[in-house]
Amino acid sequence: MNVGIDQISFHVPNFYVDMVDLANARNVDPNKFLIGIGQEKMAVNPKSQDIITFATNAAKQILTDDDLNKIDLIIVGTESSIDESKAAAVVLHRLLDIQPFARSFEVKEACYAGTAGLQMALNHVRLHPDKKALVIATDIAKYGLNSGGEPTQGAGAVAILVAANPKILVIHEESLALTQDIYDFWRPTNQAYPLVDGPLSNETYIQSFNQVWNTYNQQFNQQISDYQALLFHIPYTKMGKKALQSVLPTADQITQERLLQHYEDSIQYSRQVGNLYTGSLYLGLISLLENSQDLKTTQKIGLFSYGSGAVAEFFTASLVNGYQEHLHHSLHQNLLNERKRLSIEEYEKMFEDSLDVNVDQEFSDTYPYSIQSIHNTIRQYRK
Ligand code: HMG
Q: Is residue 156 within 8 Å of 276, Cβ to Cβ?
């Protein structure tokens, strides 16, 4: 039985910083950010918008009444949790009006958590094909003003509906995961920003990709020419390209051109929003599907998921006939185009204006599902 992605959408906050403005403010050559890092814009959220706001907006776009009755599993992958105990999935379950007899929980392993959730959801639906599962990857990537990681920040969510006989993408059961206890990027409890060893994180990312890529292809008898596209976790768009380039010399010319072109299609949205952490690989998937004109249902797509710390996984998928009819291209284009560009002064003010849930307050932000008020440390969302 085929199980996979029946619906998929993303949401980002309605503010961004232009990377040329940021480079100028930081006294850096803009080409370092535009070419060296590969980013044009970076999504930024006000304190009245959080991982629940992004997640609810992303999921609302894809769920029908029938889905709400069939979903019995809601998994949120995040490393920007708003509570040490209560799962964001429980709040989402209410905001989305999903039928009550469901499992709702949150999973964590840096940017890998979305994939952990997706694999659990796929197995759940393989066992219960009459049910559906909702997986949401939602995060705020913040490294601090003037920090080394600042140009690789971002915010937003991807929502994925998993079902039997999916309309968009069949995900194959064969996959290969790799765990290595490495401190390349981590965030001790109660610390606002992650600690990061940039060069080690880049190195571990590529080394992990090479390990799962080589072993997967050996175990499952695949060659690079079998793939029409390779998708990567995208902390910044140059990163995935470096990983891709590490294996391209093993391919013939036509395969190289195809993989490079499809990589470019997959980074169009990430270039405009930055790192979504758990959602980045899946934002790349949406970007590929919505911006490529020559994808085939007969050839595989490979997906590389990476979460610092580190866990990596390589798995494959095949497109379903007519998948184009189930995408949300214009909705996503409008979302990106209608955002407000912040001056660096406004960005820095927004960045430092962090939410204090110990202070009861009301918010005037009318953005859908934004935080309406805080009372007794509890966030109430605008429905
Ligand atoms: P940096 O020290 O600011 O940059 O750190 P750099 O000096 O390494 O330069 C970056 C690139 O820009 C280089 O290209 C330069 O040559 C180039 P490369 O050699 O890499 O190809 N460059 C220029 N290009 C054109 N014109 C110019 C110019 N100047 C320089 N004028 C770093 C960059 C990414 C390390 C930093 O931003 C950082 O620490 N970011 C956060 C960590 C990160 O994103 N790591 C990625 C792998 S780990 C991962 O993906 C997991 C993660 O998502 C977290 C999770 O799992 O939860 C991060």
A: yes
